[in-house]
Amino acid sequence: MTVISEQDFIDSIADALQFIANYHPKDFIQAMADAYDKEQSPAAKDAIAQILINSRMCAQDKRPICQDTGIVNVFIKVGMQVQWNTSKSLDDMVNEGVRRAYLHPDNILRSSIVSDPLGTRTNTKDNTPAVIHTQLVTGDKVEIDIAAKGGGSENKAKFTILNPSDSLVDWVLETVPKMGAGWCPPGMLGIGVGGTAEKAMLMAKQSLMAPIDIQELIERGPETTTEKLRVELYHKVNDLGIGAQGLGGLTTVLDVKINDYPTHAASLPVAIIPNCAATRHTHFILDGTGPAQFEPPALSDWPEITWQAAQNTRHVNLDTLTQADIEQWLPGETLLLSGHLLTGRDAAHKKIADLFTSGLPLPDGLDFNNRFIYYVGPVDPVKNEIVGPAGPTTATRMDKFTDMMLDKTGLLGMIGKAERGPETIASIKHHKSVYLIAVGGSAYLVSKAIKASRIIAFEQLGMEAIREFTIENMPVTVAVDSRGQSVHHSGPIEWKQNIADIKLSQH
Questions:
Q1: In this structure, is the dihedral angle defined by the CA atoms of residues 189, 192, 197 and 198, taken in order, positive or negative?
Q2: Does 472 lie in the same domain as 427?
């Protein structure tokens, strides 16, 4: 009879979450390095370079890969011959491990979980509770898959029930472009097919726990229906030309995973859940001999890539910037920003909207006139840091507030990640504003450009408070210019055609 102690289980959960916050899996590093080597789109190659450099920096300094350190997903298989030495429930032990991991003083992880989701949406302050799935199986061990899933990718989950005669491939190829770039490609697509609605979603999530192995599959040749479908979708999704960060390029997905299950004769449930460029998951087994051990990749596993701005990169001083200046910027252009900017995201925008609705002024000291806002919720700093990892959040969620901000506050421009919707682009064009993107998945790298930080308003919102950052040479790309031209629209169109031309020339 295997006896699992409470301490070993809690320590293993906590250690696993700290581990995956800081280290990409080796298979992901290799797949991204291969994508970097073959990428021909300059914008996409630059984005992949930043992601890989950020990844190596986080491994060296043991800091989070992304500022969004995720909602914890745990899949537990408990052998029926296991005995527990604890007075706690399994869920309570998991959540204690989560709590310890996210409050670790040497490497604080951002707490993103809010209770009362339809009401006050109050941050639980320790990232609990986790989402836990438990299964009783034969055997005398406890097997655990654990992941920290960022909101940007989780929000892009899709589900449908097709007719049995419908084409799953057609639905995926129609759906993926509608997911936008908020899931921070390149990453993985997890697909669940069959069962019932909830079973399909669960299988899609579980499929993302498997290692990246599509190139090995292609090399040996697919044999089963599922394997053939994986290879077909891998090629056809990449042929869409969406590319890294949605900028247009050769690699949109690093792998496509599919789990299936028997289903009703009248149904074909299908779920898609993407994994972002901060893919964080690990697997471990407890056999009663102590807590799990985690071995980080060697620094030699990362490719030798350096990043520096191109010679024609425009240097921008935000403190002296004028309307006339931003009207000179072009879609896809790289900028290095220095000076002062304000931060803010979902909760801060909602508070501002409520103040305007009530006829009340903004808090003292909060003035957006002729300023830029950066959509970010940073990790708390440790040791001598100014701020922890501080990468961009998905700007699309702020679309509903953008016209208000541009119309009522004098805001000059915005910085985030992913595309903007048609109405927002129209508003940007009308106000002759601009929208810039930083690379999602380069949070620690971005944080090194932040030289000072102070809270300006809404301190009670924690990571969602409005701050003023002093920045120096923060790299961004012009995503929507003052004429309403969007690189997220033009880039994939261009590269879809480029890919088709490349394939035609090869034949």
A1: negative
A2: yes
